[in-house]
Amino acid sequence: MGSNQIMFILFSVMIVVFSILTVTSRRILRAATFLLFVLVSTSGLYFMLNYQFMAAVQLTLYAGGIVVLIIFSILLTSHINQKFEEPGNKKIIFSAIASITGALLSILTILDFKFSATTQAAQEVNMRLIGKSLMSVEYDGYILPFEVISILLLAAMIASIVVAKKSGPRTDTQTLKQE
Amino acid sequence: MNAGIPLEYFLILATIMFFVGIYGFLTRRNLITILMSVELILNSVNINFLAFNRFLFPHKLEGFFFSLFVIAVAASEAAVAIAIIINIYRRFTTINVEDVNEMKF
């Protein structure tokens, strides 16, 4: 057994165990910490696939950004020592049946399917290539989704500011209407 | 780096992660934990895209850029969802989905 197989087994066991703990833990801050472990092990898998840029994005954006955002909102909305009540037994049983059936079906389909790999030589993914593809208007370019995602990010930023903004006791239009 | 590990192992790992996320989405009642389950689901899909790209189409970059854009969408989704959750908490003083059953009053 090679070292990369040992690493793969380590990362997979961490991902499976910590994902199950994320959805079953009864303390919400612990659930967020387990989610952080899942995301960090996923970035390890990306390193194993030789996508270093993707692993760095995963570490900074997911593990660094989204988890911190989630932990901030947990601290704003719940008590740290508060424990959830258990969901009902019926709910647990039916959800477990649904997920296990789905997982078994998908795994059987995956094992049954014959994936045929290409014979073309692998391409090295470096920063220069990524930047050129993102900016290119050629056949292999991704300039359109890049622009669309920038507009989406701007819209999400404005929307979250507008939604979370504290609305005053009475705005100008409301006072005008009452007068 | 990925020698000796078949593609199927990555896909099975992503499948297990996806359905654990589905289980959490169905059983959780707190809005933030539901959001965390959605993040698990999106993350498992990213593993799938990158594994397919590396094993089946190593001369192209399509799966790579798809998962990059999925991460951007997940980030903006989390920002908007947390803004909405904080607004709900301000109005109802709870973020339990079963207690938040009025849209406007």
Helices and strands in order:
The complex is a heterodimer of chains A (179) and B (105).
Chain A: H1 3-24, H2 28-48, H3 52-77, H4 89-112, H5 127-135, H6 143-164, H7 172-178
Chain B: H1 7-27, H2 31-55, H3 62-92
Helix pairs in contact in B: 1-2, 2-3
Question: Can you characterise this structure?
Answer:
The complex is a heterodimer of chains A (179) and B (105). Chain A is built from seven helices and no strands. Chain A has 179 residues and is mainly α. Among the domains of chain A are: 1-82, Four Helix Bundle (Hemerythrin (Met), subunit A) (Up-down Bundle); 126-166. Chain A is globular and about 55 Å long. The model of chain A has no long low-confidence stretch (mean pLDDT 86). Chain B is mainly α and 105 residues long. Chain B has one domain (7-92): Helix Hairpins. Chain B is built from three helices and no strands. Chain B has helices at residues 7-27, 31-55, 62-92. The longest helix of chain B is centred in the last third of the chain and has 31 residues, at 62-92. The termini of chain B are far apart. The model of chain B has no long low-confidence stretch (mean pLDDT 88). The chains are: A mainly alpha (179), B mainly alpha (105). Chains A and B meet through helix 1, helix 2, helix 3, helix 4 and helix 5 of A and helix 1, helix 2 and helix 3 of B.
